[in-house]
Inverse folding.
């Protein structure tokens, strides 16, 4: 296991280096002038030169790249040319919001998706199967941001059950930040009322984010279960009188989960990269919005930082996914 | 030396006439002033600083509440030496005091902030500002001339966006404290409107002790103040979490008092970039105010029983900028053809009438604005054809790029109206949506500049600034290139000469005549087509009181209160 881990961690280095080169090239070769943009329209020539000097943008591109990477190796993610804030702490702050949303939406997605898949496969081609497939196809067929707007109108504006947007009640005292994930921070602070408030604010964004998980888990798991249900060991289990419920929830489920976990790893990695549209509509201060804004302003160091950060996260999630295979099925070699 | 001072009696009448105080309050205050004057022992109204505190204190009966403000933009920084945009300024105005205020109404009147009296030497170079002795920073220390000097000097030293205009008029050595209450600024060149310039540059006055205690590499505490404050304004920071929470808390005993019948206890700046969500936030009661409301949402907000909208026009003006140095648009007759070809009324209709069409280079609200400027380019196909025939492109067969900001449908609408018209002349208009940084980059030089670009400009309401930044060739014909504001690449030596003399002409009448002459000459050359002033549409809950439109996207929280009754 340790050898596997070491090899995979070493493999991360060329992957991230490649990513850094591509991101650097793309962000610096697109048209536009980040210095002029940041200096403002009435900037005097000496201001533009000073700003370019401060951010090292007056140097040749290869030198800029190596200076950035050297800084990164020392834990310095750079500064935003637009806000002058350090990129590292910003990434942590915005990523915490995205991580919280991803965790909750994945849990919701699994809680709904797995039972739907079992029901669908167990009663194949009967009405529960049709209903389940309708839900799973429907959720991926409709743009998520549109569902978010409908939920805002119905649940927030008309029924006034949930807030329209944001992470916490602006009129309430904001919880003390420990992890940046408000559900956890409110629990650490022992404030159940604040926990409830944070949960209310989480419902619409998490539900919207979970729709993709529901759809993909349901379809993948259903298909795998229907494949496995025809296998000999299921026939043997039935012949031995093992109850049908046990066959479905233990034997079938365990064998069908491998592909689902692989796909889940992909979805989580994708969601941890942020969902700019959902974050935009629901005003969720996640890393997707942060990266998008940086890209629109050609804010070079936040672009590099968010891309590499998300890249690291995706690689780590894939690593965890690979290790989970082994946990579920010890027959699978780590090689 | 000519002197200006604050006249509280006149101001009181203005407030009454504008409906900001009622008859009863007005009579009370007049009685108080008369009694005070008779006794010659109550100097409460002798200085501007006391006016508002005396005005406000006895009238405040309503329990202060927190106001939630749905804003279309994040607050990138609170560094008082760095940069400005509408959201940064809206919040910094509440945390810091400035020499002057301009939020009293529209068009924006100049009102004293920290100054009680100011004057200028006869040659319009030496400006003297006397400060109130009542102002205190939030840590209780007095606001002195030294802090004012430090704040201006540090902005100039930092050489960031906030310093851009100021640096053209004064350098660090030109700003000195004569004594603890007097600041003298000696300009590099005479400038008769320097007080107005200072008012609109809004330099926040920073507590020098706090700033210097947190200074790193000569930044004057700028990095420290990115998410903190060291001011003397009516609000202080309660909670500041980047991207999540921007919460201000009122300073109940603010030295200048509170101008309304009540006041707020705090403000939450709720960044909500999606216009639809801002509307829903207002309608659901989550937000008390939402800015930058879409024109299509006005009817719905007004029809809702508890909300209403305010449509005001400020200084954000949209222009079709023609590249006067390159391609077909280098020919003035072709530019006139384009200008006469555009159906402004159709554009106004496409925006449901919520636009203020422009008549010349200066928008309404800027001194020198002329609604009857000649020439103006109203839609006239016969004149368009007449001018096209004077060019080498009379048979068409050419194509032009029309560049606009990607995603802005009102800019695209402008392009579509022009495209439709140009087709009649066998001219193809390519609508090219671009990201804003691309447009800024393209506007650096004529060879990369688009044939036509739909660009919005905004400056302080000073005619010289508008005209020089947009139309002087010095604004683009330089080694570092031009800004998007000068994307017409306009060069007319006669206009350049007139523009050079604009700031040094201190006689008001001569200056006004010069502004008129320059506008006429520019209009005759058509380097751009001034199209319209963008509306600032604000949605408010009816419980919010004290709203006073002053030409900006944001509101002035100092003047607001919430009345549930």
């Amino acid at each position: 296991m340790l050898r596997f881990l070491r090899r995979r961690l070493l493999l991360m280095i060329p992957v991230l280096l490649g990513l850094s080169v591509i991101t650097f090239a793309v962000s610096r070769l697109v048209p536009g002038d980040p210095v002029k943009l940041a200096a403002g329209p009435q900037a005097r020539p000496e201001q533009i030169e000073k700003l370019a000097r401060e951010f090292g943008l007056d140097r040749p591109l290869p030198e800029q790249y190596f200076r950035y990477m050297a800084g990164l190796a020392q834990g310095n993610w750079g500064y935003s040319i637009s806000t002058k804030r350090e990129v590292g702490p910003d990434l942590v702050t915005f990523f915490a919001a995205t991580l919280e949303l991803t965790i909750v939406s994945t849990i919701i997605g699994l809680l709904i998706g797995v039972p739907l898949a079992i029901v669908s496969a167990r009663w194949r081609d009967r009405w529960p199967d049709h209903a389940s497939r309708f839900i799973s196809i429907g959720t991926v067929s409709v743009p998520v941001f549109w569902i978010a707007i409908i939920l805002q109108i119905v649940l927030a504006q008309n029924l006034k059950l949930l807030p329209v947007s944001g992470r916490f009640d602006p009129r309430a005292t904001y919880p003390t930040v420990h992890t940046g994930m408000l559900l956890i921070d409110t629990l650490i602070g022992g404030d159940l009322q604040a926990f409830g408030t944070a949960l209310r604010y989480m419902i619409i964004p998490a539900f919207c984010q979970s729709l993709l998980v529901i759809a993909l888990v349901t379809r993948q798991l259903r298909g795998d279960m229907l494949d496995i249900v025809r296998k000999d060991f299921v026939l043997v289990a039935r012949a031995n009188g093992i109850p049908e419920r046990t066959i479905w929830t233990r034997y079938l489920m365990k064998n069908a989960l491998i592909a689902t976990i692989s796909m889940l790893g992909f979805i989580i990695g994708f969601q941890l990269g942020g969902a700019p549209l959902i974050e935009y509509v629901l005003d969720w201060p996640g890393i997707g919005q942060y990266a998008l804004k940086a890209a629109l302003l050609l804010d070079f160091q936040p672009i590099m930082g968010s891309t590499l950060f998300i890249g690291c996260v995706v690689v780590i999630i894939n690593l965890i996914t690979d290790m989970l295979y082994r946990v579920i099925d010890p027959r699978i070699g780590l090689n | 030396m000519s002197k200006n001072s604050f006249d509280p009696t006149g101001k009181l009448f203005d407030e009454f006439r504008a409906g900001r105080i009622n008859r009863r309050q007005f009579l009370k205050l007049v009685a108080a002033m008369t009694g005070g004057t008779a006794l010659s022992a109550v100097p409460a109204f002798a200085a501007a600083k006391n006016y508002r505190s005396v005005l406000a204190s006895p009238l405040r009966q309503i329990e202060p509440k927190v106001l939630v403000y749905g804003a279309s933009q994040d607050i990138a920084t609170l560094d008082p030496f760095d940069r400005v945009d509408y959201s940064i300024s809206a919040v910094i105005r509440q945390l810091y005091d400035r020499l002057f205020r301009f939020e009293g109404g529209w068009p924006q009147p100049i009102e004293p902030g920290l100054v009680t009296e100011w004057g200028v030497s006869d040659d319009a170079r030496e400006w003297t500002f006397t400060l109130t002795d009542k102002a205190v920073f939030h840590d209780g220390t007095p606001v002195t001339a030294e802090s004012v000097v430090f704040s201006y000097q540090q902005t100039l030293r930092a050489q960031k966006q906030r310093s851009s205009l100021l640096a053209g008029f004064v350098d660090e050595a030109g700003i000195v404290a004569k004594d603890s209450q007097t600041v003298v600024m000696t300009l590099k060149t005479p400038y008769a409107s320097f007080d107005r310039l200072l008012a609109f540059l809004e330099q926040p006055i920073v507590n020098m002790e706090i700033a210097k205690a947190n200074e790193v590499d000569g930044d004057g505490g700028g990095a420290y103040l990115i998410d903190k404050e060291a001011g003397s304004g009516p609000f202080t920071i309660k909670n500041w979490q980047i991207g999540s929470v921007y919460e201000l808390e009122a300073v109940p005993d603010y030295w200048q008092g509170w101008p309304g019948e009540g006041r707020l206890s705090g403000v939450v700046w709720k960044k909500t970039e999606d216009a639809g969500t801002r509307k829903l936030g207002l309608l659901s009661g989550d937000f008390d105010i939402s800015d930058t409301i879409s024109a299509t949402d006005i009817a719905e907000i007004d029809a809702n029983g508890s909300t209403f909208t305010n449509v005001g026009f400020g200084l954000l003006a949209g222009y079709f900028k023609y590249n006067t140095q390159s391609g077909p648009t280098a020919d003035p007759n072709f530019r006139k053809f384009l200008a006469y070809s555009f159906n402004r009324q159709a554009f106004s209709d496409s925006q449901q009438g919520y636009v203020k069409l422009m008549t010349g280079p200066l928008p309404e609200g800027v001194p020198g604005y002329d609604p009857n400027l000649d020439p103006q380019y109203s839609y006239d196909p016969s004149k368009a054809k007449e001018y096209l025939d004077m060019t080498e492109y009379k048979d068409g067969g050419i194509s032009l790029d029309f560049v606009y900001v990607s995603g802005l449908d009102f800019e695209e609408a402008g392009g579509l109206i022009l495209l439709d018209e140009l087709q009649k002349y066998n001219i193809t208009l390519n609508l090219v949506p671009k990201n804003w940084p691309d447009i800024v980059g393209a506007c650096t030089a004529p060879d990369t500049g688009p044939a036509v670009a739909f660009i919005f400009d905004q400056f302080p309401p000073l005619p010289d600034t508008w005209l020089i930044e947009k139309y002087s060739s010095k604004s683009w014909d330089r080694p570092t290139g031009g800004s998007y504001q000068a994307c017409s690449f306009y060069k007319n030596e006669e206009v350049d000469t007139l523009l050079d003399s604009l700031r040094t002409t201190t006689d008001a009448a001569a200056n006004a005549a010069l502004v008129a002459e320059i506008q006429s000459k520019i209009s005759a050359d058509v380097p751009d087509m001034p199209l319209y002033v963008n509306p600032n549409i604000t949605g408010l809950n009816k419980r919010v009181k004290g709203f006073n439109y002053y030409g900006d996207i944001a509101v002035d929280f100092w003047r607001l209160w919430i009345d549930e009754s």
